[in-house]
Amino acid sequence: MKMTMIALMGVGVLASACTSTGNVERNAAGGAALGALAGAVIGNNVGSGSAGTGALVGAAIGGTVGAVKGCKEDGGCGSTSVNRRQYYDERAGRYYYYDSRSGRYYWEDGAPRY
After folding, report:
1. Which residues neighbour 39 within 8 Å (Cβ) at sequence distance 6 or greater?
2. Which residue has better confidence, 8 or 70?
3. How far is it, in rounded angstroms, from Cα 111 to Cα 108?
4. SS3 111
5. Segment holding 99, helix H or strand E
6. 76 has which bridge partners?
7. Is the dihedral of CA 3, 9, 10, 15 positive or negative?
8. Nearest 5°: CA angle at 90, between 89 and 96?
């Protein structure tokens, strides 16, 4: 169990420099830690009673789910959400946003800005 936790910490440290936002790494590390904890408890109480094996399986599944969640937060991995960070146009008195998929600006109601 001690080796499993050391390995998980190492993976979290190594993955921390991969993307600019850090959502993928942060969610992957958190998912792996929670998965390892849950897997150790379940593995200890079910089947052959191997907490180490349960922790490894839980960490793998939790890390994968966390990485996909972080990737979707960044707008990738098949995400349907668009980054809708809004800006305020003082002259028009309205909010607008930039759509990175089309490369255009839109008012908050969806009408083209220019």
Report:
1. 54, 55, 56, 57, 58, 59, 61, 62
2. 70
3. 7
4. coil
5. strand 94-99
6. none
7. positive
8. 15
Whether pLDDT at 90 is above 90: yes
Structure confidence by residue, pLDDT tens digits, 8-63:
555 554 444 455 567 778 878 888 888 888 888 887 777 677 788 888 888 888 88
Look at residue 81 and tell me whether its pLDDT is greater than 70.
no
Across the strands, what pairs with 94?
89
Supply the pLDDT for residue 13. Answer: 47
CA atoms of 111 and 60, how far apart (whole Å): 44
Spatial distance between the Cα atoms of 97 and 104, rounded to a whole number of angstroms = 9
Torsion-angle region of residue 105: left (phi > 0), alpha (psi -120 to 50) or beta? beta
Residue type, 60: A
Q: What are the residue ranges spanned by the domains of the chain?
A: 2-73, 83-114
**CA separation for the pair 61, 34 (Å, rounded):** 10
